[in-house]
Design a protein that fits this description.
The protein is an alpha/beta fold. It is 34% helix and 22% strand.
C-alpha cells in the first residue's frame, strides 16, 4: 500500500487528503477541504491516468451535512415529479442512495441536480430506480449492508491491501492451473479452483440438487484449503452455481465474493429457499441464515464490463452471459499479460424474451471454459415461435378439457420467460385470458427483475418503465401467498396455469401440486427447463408413472395419469448450434476450450466437434482433475 499511496500523494497538494481507503480494488480519497472536493481541477483524473486504477474523491464524513437536514435539502432540490421514495445514508462512506420513480429527473440535465446536492450537502449522491414491484428481500439485503457499514469499510480496505501487496512487483515463475471440484462431465455443483503462485480463487460453488449421494463439491481435495482462499467469483444465481458459498462462511471464510448486483440478491433468495426445502424434507440444513447474511456482508458487486483486480495477479471483467438476470461470463486476466481465460458459466448465445445474447467480443482470450448442458449432437432446439405455439397448445387443450397445467420451473429465468410468453399470447389476442398462479419464490424473483431493468433487453426494459405496460403486472398473474390459497387452487379453482418451483420436482410447491393433480387425466404437466439425472422430473420425462412418497411416516403410492409434455426452447442454455456459433464468433478465437457442465457424453461430443471444426485444442476434464493452462 505504501508504494501506491506515495504515487497518489506526490501528485496532490499537501494536506488536502485526510484519509486514504481501499474499497476492494478501488481507491477512495477523503478530504476535509470543501472547495477541493467540489473542484479539484482534474487532479484526480490525472492520477487515474497515471496509475491506471479507479480513484474516487469523497468528502470526509466529518464535513457532511447532518442526516436529517441533508434529507430535507435533497428532497427540496429534486423535483416532485421525479417521485423520490427512500433516501438512505451510508455515513461511513459519505454516500447517500436516493430511490426515485424517474431517475433521469432526479439526476437533472447533464447531472445538474446531482451537482447541487453535492454542493449543498457535501454528500455523494447515488440515484437508483424505485422497483415497480417492491422486494422485501432487496430491502433486507441493503439494510444488512447499511447496518454493517463500518464493518464493510474495514473489510473492503482489507481486500484492497491484499490486492495491492507488492504493487508493480515483478512476478517470476508464473503458471496457471485449474482443478475441477465439481461440474466435470456433470451438470450440477459447479466449482472450479484457480491457482497461480500468488492466488487461490474459486469460480462458483454450487450444489447438485438432483443427487442425494454426491450433492456437494469436492472441497476435501488436497489442493483446496479454505484458509488460503483469496476470492470467490460467482457467475450467476442458480443453486448449482451459488448455493454452497454460505458453507464456506460457516467454516470461517471471510474473503470477498464477486458478482453482479442482481446475482447477489437472487442468490440470497435461492439460498434461503434451499434451507427451507431441506427443513421441510426433515433434513438438517448444511448452513444457516446467519451464514447467508455473512456472505452478503462480504459480497462486492461489479457491473458488466467493469474491470477489477481481485488478487495481486488476477483481474476480472464480467460480461453478459444471456442466461438469467445478472448472469455473467467471467474474463480472467492472469499475471501481467500472462494468460487470459473466459469462464462462460451458463450462457445463452441467442436473444430471449428477457435478455440480450451472450457477448462475444473480448480484449484477449487464450482459454475458454464452456458449458455443454445441451452440447450433444441430438440437442437441436426448436425456433422460438414453435416453442410458444407448443406451450399455447398445451394450455389451450388442457383448459378445454377442464384441467390445470402445472409448470414446475426454476424460480429464476425460466419462470419470467414463461410469464412473458403467456402474457404476450393474451395481449396479442392469440389466446383467451387464463388465470396464472405464481407459487414459490417466483414472485420475489420477478420483483428483483423489475429492480434491475438495465440488465434486461431493450423491449422489456421500456415496458417495465411504464407501469400500465409492465408485462409482469398483467391481471392474469395471481400470487399464491399461503397454504390455504394453494389448497383452494387445487380443490376449488377451475382451469388454470400454475407456475411453481422447484423446476426438477426435487422439492418446493411444485411437488405438492403434483401429488394432488397427477391422478386426474384432465390435467397436464409441462417441463420447460433442464431436468437433472436422477431427479423426479427426469424420471417422469423418461416415462416413469408410479412413485412412492413418504407422508408423515406412511408410504403413499401415486400414479401419474396427467398428460406429460416437454416444451423445448425455453432453456436459458445455448443449444448445440449456439455453442458452436459462440466459439466461431469469439473475438479473439480461443486457442484452447475446456468443456464442462454437461453430461459425460455431451461434454465429449462437444469437445470432439470443436476440435474437428475449429482445429483448436479441447479437453473435457472429470471432477478432481487438474489442468495446467499456462
Amino acid at each position: 500500500m505504501a508504494d501506491i499511496t506515495k504515487e497518489i500523494l506526490k501528485n496532490l497538494p499537501e494536506k488536502r487528503i485526510s484519509d486514504i481507503n481501499f474499497e476492494g480494488a478501488n481507491i477512495v480519497l477523503y478530504t476535509k477541504d470543501k472547495d477541493f472536493f467540489l473542484n479539484n481541477n482534474g487532479m484526480i483524473k490525472r492520477i487515474v491516468d497515471n496509475i491506471k486504477k479507479r480513484v474516487e474523491l469523497r468528502p470526509d464524513p466529518s464535513i457532511t451535512m447532518d442526516l436529517e437536514e441533508g434529507e430535507k435539502i435533497i428532497r427540496s432540490i429534486i423535483p416532485e415529479e421525479a417521485g423520490v421514495d427512500q433516501v438512505i445514508f451510508d455515513p461511513q462512506r459519505s454516500r447517500v442512495i436516493i430511490e426515485a420513480d424517474k431517475p433521469g429527473l432526479a439526476i437533472g440535465k447533464q447531472g445538474a441536480i446531482l451537482r447541487d446536492i453535492r454542493t449543498q450537502t457535501l454528500w455523494v449522491p447515488l440515484i437508483r430506480r424505485k422497483p415497480a414491484i417492491r422486494s422485501k428481500l432487496i430491502e433486507n439485503i441493503r439494510a444488512v449492508l447499511y447496518q454493517n457499514s463500518d464493518y464493510r469499510r474495514k473489510f473492503l480496505d482489507k481486500v484492497g491491501h491484499r490486492i495491492y501487496d507488492g504493487w508493480r512487483r515483478e512476478k517470476k515463475n508464473e503458471w496457471v492451473r485449474m482443478t475441477y471440484l465439481g461440474s466435470g462431465r456433470q451438470v450440477g455443483r459447479s466449482c472450479i479452483f484457480l491457482q497461480t503462485p500468488e492466488s487461490r480463487v474459486l469460480l462458483d460453488c454450487g450444489i447438485n440438487v438432483a443427487s442425494d449421494e454426491k450433492p456437494y463439491p469436492h472441497l476435501e481435495a488436497p489442493e483446496f484449503n479454505i484458509n488460503d482462499l483469496d476470492a470467490v467469483v460467482l457467475s450467476h444465481a442458480h443453486v448449482d452455481h451459488c448455493a454452497f458459498i454460505p458453507y464456506l462462511f460457516k467454516f470461517g471464510y471471510r474473503g470477498p465474493v464477486y458478482c453482479t448486483e442482481p446475482t447477489r440478491d437472487v442468490s440470497a433468495l435461492l439460498m434461503l429457499d434451499f434451507i427451507k426445502i431441506q427443513r421441510a424434507e426433515g433434513q438438517e440444513p448444511v448452513y444457516s441464515t446467519d451464514d447467508i447474511k455473512e456472505m452478503m456482508k462480504h459480497t462486492i458487486t461489479l457491473e458488466y464490463d467493469e474491470v477489477s483486480d481481485i488478487t495481486p495477479d488476477v483481474r476480472i471483467t464480467l460480461y453478459n452471459a444471456g442466461h438469467i438476470l445478472g448472469s455473467a461470463m467471467v474474463h480472467l486476466h492472469v499475471g501481467n499479460g500472462l494468460h487470459n481465460i473466459l469462464y462462460s458459466g451458463d450462457q445463452k448465445y441467442g436473444r430471449t424474451l428477457l435478455l440480450e445474447p451472450a457477448v462475444t467480443q473480448f480484449p484477449r482470450l487464450e482459454t475458454l471454459m464452456l458449458e455443454a448442458t445441451y452440447g450433444g449432437k441430438e440437442n437441436v432446439m426448436p425456433h422460438r415461435q414453435e416453442t410458444d405455439e407448443e406451450l399455447m397448445t398445451v394450455i389451450r387443450d388442457t383448459i378445454k378439457r377442464g384441467g390445470k397445467v402445472l409448470i414446475p420451473t426454476l424460480g429464476v429465468g425460466r419462470s419470467q420467460e414463461v410469464m412473458l410468453a403467456i402474457e404476450a399470447m393474451v395481449r396479442e389476442g392469440r389466446m383467451e385470458p387464463v388465470p396464472v398462479y405464481i407459487d414459490g419464490m417466483v414472485w420475489d424473483v420477478t420483483a428483483i427483475h423489475t429492480a434491475y431493468p438495465e440488465y434486461l433487453n431493450n423491449s422489456i426494459r421500456k415496458l417495465i418503465f411504464h407501469k400500465d405496460q409492465n408485462p409482469f403486472l398483467h391481471e392474469i398473474f395471481k400470487r399464491v401467498g399461503s397454504q390455504k390459497e394453494r389448497m383452494a387452487i387445487i380443490e376449488d379453482t377451475g382451469p388454470c396455469v400454475i407456475l411453481a418451483t422447484s423446476g426438477m420436482l426435487t422439492g418446493g410447491p411444485s411437488v405438492e401440486y403434483l401429488k394432488r393433480l397427477c391422478d386426474n387425466p384432465k390435467n397436464s404437466i409441462g417441463f420447460v427447463n433442464y431436468q437433472g439425472e436422477g431427479s423426479m422430473g427426469k424420471r417422469i420425462q423418461q416415462g416413469e408413472r408410479e412413485f412412492t412418497f413418504s407422508d408423515g411416516g406412511k408410504q403413499e403410492m401415486l400414479q401419474i395419469k396427467m398428460h406429460v409434455h416437454t416444451v423445448e426452447g425455453f432453456s436459458g442454455h445455448s443449444s448445440r448450434n449456439q455453442l458452436m456459433n459462440f466459439v466461431a464468433k469469439c473475438d479473439p478465437r480461443p486457442k484452447k476450450v475446456i468443456v464442462n457442465h454437461g453430461e459425460n457424453s455431451r461434454c465429449l461430443d462437444l469437445a470432439s466437434s470443436m476440435h474437428k471444426g475449429f482445429r483448436i485444442e479441447t479437453v473435457a476434464p472429470r471432477n478432481l482433475e487438474t489442468i495446467r493452462v499456462k
